[in-house]
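check this one:
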Amino acid sequence: MIPLVNALACLIALGCASFLWKKGSSPYRNGALLAGSLLLFSVFTYFGGEMFDARLVDPTLEHYPFRMMALCLCLSTTSLTLYRRRYLVLAQALWFWVELFGGIALFYRGFDIAWMRILAILGMTLCSTFLSRISKEMEFCLMVFWIAVWVFF
């Protein structure tokens, strides 16, 4: 995907993240929002990937909706009030898991693995485990880091 579509995907993930984990929401509502977000990400990936050349089948887009979902979960953890660090580390570990095994699957198809992206996510996941308290400034820095990893790597 071109960087413009990649940046648009980041904005869509940020928009979906703002609706997750509201106070007083039920697990059914959150599950429905997660499923709806994943469906939206899949539709966006289909049209975003097919928009520029419909004749090519791009295998790198197979795990793209799951990457968007992992980014959405990372961004949504900043709005949590309880157990924020725990869920932040879990969301980053999910993103690392998707990137690593998606990269391995693509490697078997002859594509290169995005090692810099994987190492950046792993490094931030390991560093986030040692945060004692996440301030508003640290939340902003984490969000900027995630968006930079998404767009530039």
